[in-house]
Amino acid sequence: MSFFRKHVKENVIIVGCGTFGSTLAAELSEKSKSVIVIDIDEGALRKLPSSYKGFSIEGDGTDIDLLTFAGGKNADILVASTNDDDTNIMIAQIAKQVLGINRVITRIYDASKKTAYNDMDIVSICPTILSVNEFERIALNEGGE
Fold it and tell me: What pLDDT, in 10s, does the model give residues 44-83?
């Protein structure tokens, strides 16, 4: 059984359905990606807008069996976007090393944990670093923008 649509170019699993995960899921499904969202909290899945065309699963994103059931062996991309850095690191490692997903992206809040990804071929996005870089770009630009 697979939740992914066969005619879709990219199959994406997003673990974590907070503001970031739900917005990303909606955007990707609007772009005709096949998207599955997993969150341990059923209430979080209600954040998905009515325009969302993918699937949602209530469950633990660190559970290998659940990730496999969700299509992990056929996923092109996995995004770990829970609110816990250690959980995201674990999900990313499972996706990369156990399920063999080529593109794994994770969000981390603690910039010091970014080094954990250096040798794992996992892309990490840190909102703190992104915000500081953007602030510096704007603040140091004499034109104001």
Answer: 999 999 989 999 999 999 999 999 999 999 999 999 999 9
The CATH number of whichever domain residue 107 belongs to comes to: 3.40.50.720
Is residue 14 within 8 A of residue 34, CB to CB? The reply is no
Identify the domain containing residue 28 by its residue range.
11-140
Torsion, CA 40, CA 16, CA 102, CA 7, rounded to 10: 90
Q: Residue for token digits 């071929």?
A: 121
Is there a contact between 63 and 95 (Cβ–Cβ < 8 Å)? no
Question: Is the pTM of the predicted complex or chain greater than 0.90?
Answer: no
Query: Taking Cα atoms as reference points, which of 82, 6, 5 lies closest to residue 36?
Result: 5
Neighbours of 73 (CB within 10 A): 12
